[in-house]
Design a protein that fits this description.
The structure holds two protein chains of two kinds. Chain A is about 40% helix and about 20% strand. Chain A is of the alpha+beta class. Among the domains of chain A are: about 5-35 and about 415-480, no CATH class; about 90-165 and about 185-230 and about 335-370, no CATH class. Chain A has a five-stranded antiparallel β-sheet with strand order 3-2-1-15-16, covered by helices on one side. The two termini of chain A are about 25 Å apart. Chain B has a single domain (about 1-140), classed as Rossmann fold. Chain B has four helices and five strands. Chain B has a five-stranded mixed β-sheet. Chain B starts with a strand and ends in a 13-residue tail after the last helix. Classes of the chains: A alpha+beta, B alpha/beta.
């Protein structure tokens, strides 16, 4: 009898993910699918609104990375406002935005590691779910949990100082920024009371990397063999090939490391990237047109960025990058759990960039906004914490948005997440008739590596339960797990 | 005391929590600190560490309305993404990391519509008014006669 296993987190509004694992009559996995509801309604919401509202408006998409949407929209609107395509801003304008962005990367990466990853590492995939979470980390490893909380807080304070608000920040405006960083603000980050200063953040980022590398040395099977599959990888890189999370050209490499998108201008992204619709998912499947729908899918995010970049332009992170690359002998890294390693290298890089920017006097400059001849259309990209984020707007003669297209990081990672779930399902579910806690958590671990955004910016009161259903032919319930 | 409203003002009634806090900010109440966010997360454990009392305010999709108010206790219930924490989880994290002495309450205001749109449904607007009046009355009850500062909510 063929069976179907469904893992379904249910939210009250929208934004739910569901994993469906189909089993054949022999009890083998025949098909897996990871479904996410995404926020397609937002693009219609933007239509008819004045273009200069976009950087503020789009922050409603996500409560975790509103800064990424704020800056991607601002970069697209820069083009429309005649301020160039990412390189025409004043030094103060660009560096304030970079500080905002790297503050966002820092807090998001710290949150991901301490909230989602460290419980699996500290307690194991088969650990008691009652303590295999950040609360358990707080109980058993208090120092680590305090670091996670304070690193997140430090990044949030950087955002507050540059964007102006925690909710609906207004820092980035068409052509630049609406404030500089005062000397008092700068000194609060450079010389803040322990632990809220940048030197401590750099030190803690190094400590997190050391923690991961030590764990890796003792648990190579989990870190190296879990959810490994060949993939293309895409990200922005600086024009000289350096890792750059705020601006650059689009580069993609295949699973052998060959460049398949060679440092192109992202204003032309529609020439290179298509979006496929599949009947069983609300979320589109982006692909590189040159390779077609079947072979053109790609991974974005930390793993992809360290596969596309030639080097990291800060010394401590570059040293870690060299260790990381040496582990695969310079080849493309397709190990899903190495996403966490790559993320921590970016965490350290972000701390270093923040330190460099805080010591740059351009942040106290007064020339905040650049202007030029207006255009009708603009594209803005940033490397958000979870990967490449595309914003594209076209305006009419009344300066109203008439077309908006967003490709968010989670959409870019749609096929890779499905691949990861499929890998784990084939590894853990074949021949099984019951769903164990460990099996359930391993599927979650594959998803957690990508930390997909599930239309998160709506939170009425309640919780998100996780449900697994094992269904036989005709929909007969064979097993069900829920927490 | 901290009164902490969370939710997304761009999703209609989901913004009830921040809206109530915004109104309280205009009152400049002594001893009352206000906070707003899209959603709660781990750093909020530190945010509430020095408060003797915390009132979380959120929209609710269930219940009879206009609002519900009850004390909450620490909870280790965690979602599987980084995208949210419950008030109970924030309380648990705060208790474990910073300060075990605290009372916390949940004010959940009934909402009805959740689309990408600004402004509240008619029902939610009425519920917000009643919740606001309740909070003001509650605060007035527990203002210290000695120094005018809010001590706690019972």
């Amino acid at each position: 009898m063929s069976r179907k296993i469904t893992i379904e987190p249910v939210t009250r509004v929208e934004g739910h993910g569901k994993v469906t694992i189909h089993m054949d009559d022999a009890g083998k996995v025949s098909q897996t699918r990871f479904h996410i509801v995404e926020f397609r309604g937002f693009e219609r919401f933007a239509q008819g609104r004045p273009y200069w509202e976009m950087p503020v408006l789009v922050q409603r998409l996500c409560g975790i990375c509103p800064v990424s949407h704020h800056l991607a929209a601002a970069k697209a609107i820069d083009v429309i406002a005649g301020a160039g395509t990412g390189e025409g801003l004043t030094p103060t304008g660009e560096k304030m935005r970079r500080l905002m962005h790297y503050g966002q990367m820092f807090q998001s990466h710290a949150l991901h590691f301490f909230h989602l990853v460290s419980p699996d590492l500290l307690f194991g995939a088969d650990g008691d779910p009652a303590i295999r979470n950040v609360i358990g980390v707080a109980l058993m490893h208090k120092d680590l949990a305090v670091q996670g909380v304070m690193m997140r807080k430090f990044g949030q304070e950087i955002i507050l100082a540059t964007a102006g608000k925690k909710i609906h920040g207004t820092g980035a405006i068409p052509g630049g920024i609406n404030k500089n960083l005062s000397v008092a603000e700068r000194d609060s980050f450079l010389k803040g009371a322990d632990p809220l200063n940048i030197e401590k953040m750099v030190s803690w980022a190094q400590g997190a990397l050391d923690f991961f590398k030590d764990y890796h040395s003792k648990n190579k099977e989990l870190i190296d063999d879990f959810a490994v599959f060949p993939s293309n990888h895409l990200s922005l890189v600086r024009k000289d090939g350096a890792l750059d999370l705020y601006h650059g050209v689009l580069r993609a490499v295949d699973t052998d490391g060959k460049k398949i998108l060679n440092d192109v201008d992202y204003q032309d992204y529609l020439t290179y990237i298509g979006e496929e619709v599949r009947s069983w998912s609300y979320m589109k499947f982006p692909y590189l047109k040159s390779l077609g729908k079947e072979k053109g899918w790609y991974t974005v995010g930390p793993l992809a960025r360290l596969n596309t970049a030639d080097f990291i332009p800060t010394p401590l992170a570059q040293k870690e990058f060299e260790i990381y690359k040496a582990y695969t002998k310079g080849k493309v890294n397709n190990m899903s759990m190495h996403m966490h390693w790559a993320r921590l290298i970016e965490l350290l890089h972000s701390a270093e960039v923040i330190r460099d920017l805080l010591n740059d006097k351009d942040l106290q400059g007064d020339n905040l906004v650049a202007k030029g001849p207006k255009k009708k259309e603009g594209v803005g990209l940033v490397e958000a914490p979870r990967g490449t984020l595309f914003h594209h707007y076209r305006v009419n003669d009344n300066d109203q948005v008439e077309m908006a297209n967003l490709i968010v990081s989670t959409t870019n990672n749609n096929e890779p997440m499905n691949q990861a779930v499929n890998y784990v399902a084939n590894w853990a579910f074949n021949g099984k008739k019951e769903i164990t806690e460990g099996m359930m958590n391993r599927v979650e671990m594959a998803i957690r590596a990508y930390d997909p955004c599930l239309s998160c910016a709506t939170h009425a009161l309640g919780q998100m339960p996780l449900e697994i259903e094992l269904l036989g032919a005709g929909g007969i319930m064979l097993d069900r797990k829920r927490r | 005391m901290i009164i902490y409203g969370y939710g997304n003002p761009g999703r209609q009634d989901d913004g009830l929590g921040p809206a109530l806090v915004e109104r309280l900010e205009g009152e400049a109440l002594p001893g009352v600190e206000t906070r707003s966010a899209f959603q709660l997360n781990i750093e909020d454990a530190q945010t509430i560490a020095d408060a003797g009392t915390v009132i979380f305010v959120d929209a609710s999709m269930t219940g009879d309305g206009p609002f519900a108010f009850h004390e909450i206790v620490p909870s280790a219930q965690i979602t599987f993404t980084t995208h949210a924490m419950s008030p109970g989880s924030v309380l648990a994290l705060c208790q474990d990391l910073f300060n075990p002495e605290r009372r916390a309450y949940m004010l959940s205001i009934r909402g009805y519509e959740w689309e990408f749109r600004e402004g509240f449904s008619a029902g939610a607007s009425g519920n917000l008014e009643q919740a606001y009046a309740f909070v003001m009355e509650k605060l007035a009850e527990c203002v210290s006669r000695v120094d005018g500062a809010v001590l706690s909510v019972h």
